Amino acid sequence: MTVDPGRSDLPRRPGVMDPAANGAARRRSPQPEAGLSLDQLDADQRRALDNLCEMAREIGGVAAALLWSADSHSQPMLLASAGPIDRVESAIARLGTPGSTRPDSFPLTEPGASEPSAHLTLLPDKAAAEGPIRLSPEQDTLLRRLLLQLERELGQAKPARREAVPGTGEDPGPVVAQSVPGRWYERQQLIDLLEQLLLQRGGVSFTLLRLELRELPEITLALGQAMSEQVIKLAAERLLNSLPGSARACQYGESELLVLLPGRSEREPLTQLGSQLTALFDEAMQFEGRLIGTTAAIGIAPCTGDYDSSDTLLADAAIALQEARRSNTRGSHFRFVDRGEVLRKKGEYDLETSLRKTLQHSGFLPFFQPIINLRTGRVVGFECLVRWRDENNQLRTPGAFLATAGRIGLTGEMDLQVIEKAIQATHHFACGSVKERLLLSVNLSGDLLTTPRLRQRLLDLLNTTPLHPHWILQVELIEDNFKQLEEDFEEFMHHLKQLGVKIAIDDFGTGYSSLSRLHHFPFSTIKIDGSFVQRINEEERPSNRLLDAMFAIGSTMRLHATAEGVETESQRTWLIRHGFRTGQGYLFARPIPITEAVAFTRANHKRQRSFRMERDGRVFSLLVALRRRLTSLRKRFFD
Known about the structure:
It is a single chain. By secondary structure, this protein is α/β, with parallel strands linked by helices. The chain folds into 3 domains: 2-156, Beta-Lactamase (2-Layer Sandwich), CATH 3.30.450; 179-337, Alpha-Beta Plaits; 361-596, EAL domain (TIM Barrel), CATH 3.20.20.450. Helix content is 45%, strand content 19%. It contains 21 helices and 22 strands. The strands form 5 sheets. Strands 14-15-17-18-19-20-21-22 form an 8-stranded mixed β-barrel, surrounded by 4 helices. Strands 8-9-7-12-13 form a 5-stranded mixed beta sheet, with helices on both faces. It is elongated and about 150 Å long.
C-alpha cells in the first residue's frame, strides 16, 4: 500500500479520512467541541497514547509518529509522540505552516462528530522524505486497527462522554465504563491490541494476566446470571483501579478476566503485583447489601519478544492459570509461566494424541513376565503387562504413558485390547509344544472396574474369546480401586468366578487394605508388592516381619501368596524359607514378547525335565547301591 497525498488505498470510512483530504481538513474550521486539549488527558491516558504512537511508528516503519490536536483556535497541540526528539520537535515547528513539508496524516473523528479531534502523523526517514510512505497489506491492516484504537482512546478522554464500544454497538457496562474509562475493552479489541504489540519489530515488553474468579459459577447458580455479571464488573473495577493506568482488561470467559500490562515484564515487580492482587481478591466485595467472597487464580505470562502469536501467549497464560488453580491451600493464588511446564504440557498433549491413535489402530502390545516356582525354578504362569511402540519405534513401558492414559479415560479400553491379545497368545504356547497347565494373569484398571459398560464388555470378551484349555485366567485388582466400587461390583466378581477366572489383589499392602473385603469377595491370591521384597534384611527398616504377617494373613484365609519384584538369590532364599511358593521379578526374567515367552517356557520346561531325569537317575543309582548293600549284609549275617 502507498500512502500518497494524491491517492490512498485506505478506504474512506467514518472516523478515518484518507490522506488526500488532510490539507482541506486542516484548513477547515472545526467545531470547537471537536477539538481536544492536552489538559483533558491525565498522565495514564498520555502514556497510553504515547504507547499507541510507538505502535504506529513501528507499524509504518517510519522515523516518528505524532498525535496532535485539530483545534482551529490555536496552533496544533502535540498530544503524544514516538521517535527521536529532534525529529519530533522539527515536525511540530512545521505543522503550523502547510506546504513546508508533506506529512502523511490520518484525521481521527469521534463517532457523531463532524470534524476530526486529532490527527495521527507519520514522518518518514529523511532519505525517503520526498516519496510516499509504502505500507504492506499486513501493515495496512494493523494501521486500520490502530486508528480505531486511537479514536476510542480519544473519545474516552472526554469525561462527560458516554459511548458504545466502537464497531460493536454494545455498551461497555455501567460499572466498569464509568469507573475506569478507556481501560475496559471488548474481548476482540484487547486481542487485536495484543497482536499489535507482538508484531512490533524488535519486540516489546509487556505482560498478560489471565485471572479466574473461582467462585463465580457458584454465585451464578445461587444468585442468578444478572448478579454474576455485576460481580464480574465489580471485580474488574477493583482490579483496574489497583493496576497502573496503562493496563487494559476485558472479560475473556464466563468467569475469567484478561489483563494487558504494557511495558512490564520483570519478575520481581510482577511477583509483588501478584501478591497484591491475591490479597485484593481475598477480601470480600460488598454489593447491594451483600458481602460476596470470590477468590482468584491468576496466571502471569511475561512477554519480552519471545512470542509470535497471541494464541501461543494465551495458551501459556492458561497453563500458568491452571497451575494456580491446583494450589491445595485456600484463598487466591498466582503462578508464572514455567517454560518447562509449557513444554511438558505440549508433550503431554502430543502423547494423548498418540495414545488415542494407538488405541484406534489396536497398537498396544502384551508382554509377558514369567511367574516362577521359587523352589524348583519352574514356570507356572505369566503376568501380562502392556507395552507401546511409539511413532519413533521406541518401546515404551507403562510408566511413560499409563498416568496420561488414565487421566483421559483410556485405560479401560486399553485393558480390553491387551487382554484380548493375551488370550489369543495362549494358543501360541500350544503351538510351541508347551503342554503344561499355566496361569495367565492380567491387570484390570480402575477405569474398567468402575465403568459398568466396560465390565460387561470384559465378560462378553471372556465368553467369545476362550483361553487355550491348558491355561487358567487370573485378573489382578489394585486395592485402591475398592474405594470407588459400585453396588453391582460384587455381582461382576461372581460372574468372573463362574467363568473360572481367579481373582488376585495386586500390590497387596500398599493401598486401601480392608480385611473385610478379603473375606467378602472371592479372592484366591494376594500379590505382595515388590517394595516389601526389596527391603528384606535391610539394615534400617527391614520388611521381614511385615512379609511374615502378610503371608500369615493369606494362609489363614487360604489365599495363595505370590512375591513380586524378586531380584536377588538372597531374596529368593528368604522367601522360600518363609513359606512363599511363587514369585516373579528380574532375577528370573524381564517382561518379554510372546515369541520370546514361548521360547523361554520351552527351554525352562526342558531344563526341568532334564533335571527330573538326572534326579531320578541319581535316586535309581542310590536304590541299586542300597539293594546291593542289603544283599551283602544278609549274606554276611544270615548265610
